[in-house]
Amino acid sequence: MYYLQSRWKLEKNALYYYGLRNKPDMFHNRVKLTSGQRSIIAALPKDLSEDEKKTLGSLLGIQVVSQENVRVIPKSLSEARFCKTCCANDFIIPGLEFDDEGRCPMCQTAGYAENLKSVVPLVDDIPRSKKSRFDVALFYTGGKDSTSLLYYLSKIKKLRVLALTWEIPFMSASAKASIDGAKKAFENVEFITRSLSNSDLKKIYRKLYSLSDNTCACPSLAYLLFYPELVSNRVPYFVAGNEPVQMLGLYYNHIAPTLAYSFADNKPLTLLFNIGRLLTLHPPLRQGQFQTLMTMKQLAYGDKPLKKLSGYENELVSNIVEAIHEVPELLPPLKRSIRRSSWSGNVPAFVHFDLDKIFGGRYDWNKVKEILINECGWVAPSEEKKALHTSCKIEKCKDHTQFLRFYQCKSKMIPFSALEISLASRNCGRSREETIYEMENLLGFSLEEIPECALMRAYLEEEQ
């Protein structure tokens, strides 16, 4: 008797693999089928004739296997197989493969991926602006990573920072306290807080919940709210609090191709794009401005067909964009600011600082938390061992719903936190014991619904 191997699913005329494959085939998750192969696979499980085995060809033994070779997918962390060199495992990333040495694909490609630092331009310095009251804006949540950047930009680099906080109903108590602490600790920072009306926010959240099973819309809604503010203040640069493992996770999730990490440094492509702008009487753009316009246009107008055809589509962002369009009244100010900045050339450049480099070669979570507590008035979460995503009460819900959808093969997106915590166990100074404790107790990797999901639903079900 032969079966379709676990995590391979028949979808139209192809097989799709829900998992992360070994290095040679890491992103070869889709296998096209002949009509003969499709009819055989659609009838599995079954005994195969010699002619059917011949028709299946190279699929036999990989995608189609005998009963004793069907992989069992773990139902808990205690049943999981762990990578030998990091804490990646086949429970939080079902379908994770291992090589003969017991290494996961992320460790197999660690040497290659170490140069994949950012999908927006990397900078070491930001010059003092002569045209604005601010040198740089930061999307600030009160969490560990955005506070790290605020500390670096304000206290170390002595820049004039505009800190932009989108206030959400689920902001954690520690994040609120950290924001209050930062206001006292940073004298050269101006803080702005914005929020949407409950009515508009619930329209967006309800649509997003129907698409993604959660309401996480950060930082896209913050970009929508604050981009007009950046343009009107002529802020030359803005940054978001993304740590190294988040940036690297985009690659392993097949959201950002290798080219995306070097696009900003690709001078021929930049030149070609700017020639097109000059021909349409638009001023040329500098490093980071092109990335800004792409980001904001995606929110305002949705994904372009070419991006969808490329296979590099961010399901999370696409769902958020669709949800935002439930409240079309929010879009005209954003669209006006896009047009205004594109015609004038006063586009705030979206850039990134390498937190590994900033903090002495490695963004050590434990050491960074000590600095923030001592220097920035930062307040750690009540779960003192939590280090991944510290600013939101329903972050665990996002983990859980992304995990459950991927586990059940309803989404092609690997849970972001599953990739990030696995990479962090190797890159961020965390011990194996600390990482596994966080996986098991502080993140949402559970097949049973977690209590925090009730917070999210309670807000959605409130009467207007």
Helix and strand layout, with pairings?
Layout (H helix, E strand, L loop, with lengths): L1 E3 L3 E4 L2 E4 L12 E3 L2 H8 L7 H7 L7 E3 L38 H4 L1 H4 L22 E4 L4 H13 L4 E6 L6 H13 L3 E6 L3 H15 L7 H13 L4 E4 L3 H9 L5 H5 L4 H13 L9 H13 L3 H6 L4 H10 L6 H14 L4 E2 L4 H4 L6 H11 L19 H13 L8 H12 L4 H10 L11 H9 L3
Helix pairs in contact: 5-17, 7-14, 8-15, 9-19, 12-14, 12-15
Number of strands: 10
- Arrangement of strands in the largest sheet: 8-7-6-9-10
Beta fraction of the residues? 5-15%
What about the largest sheet?
A: 5 strands, parallel
What integer value in Å does the Rg equal?
23 Å
Number of helices: 21
Q: Into which percent range does the helicity of residues fall?
A: 40-55%
Structural class: alpha/beta
Low-confidence stretches: none
State the shape.
globular
Give the termini distance in whole angstroms.
Answer: 57 Å
Average pLDDT, rounded to a whole number, is 92
Q: Can you describe what's shown?
A:
It is built from 21 helices and ten strands. It has helices at residues 35-42, 50-56, 105-108, 110-113, 144-156, 173-185, 198-212, 220-232, 244-252, 258-262, 267-279, 289-301, 305-310, 315-324, 331-344, 355-358, 365-375, 395-407, 416-427, 432-441, 453-461; strands at 2-4, 8-11, 14-17, 30-32, 64-66, 136-139, 161-166, 189-194, 237-240, 349-350. A five-stranded parallel sheet has the order 8-7-6-9-10, sandwiched between helices. β6 (136-139), α5 (144-156) and β7 form a beta-alpha-beta unit. The chain is globular. It starts with a strand and ends with a helix. 43% of the residues are buried.
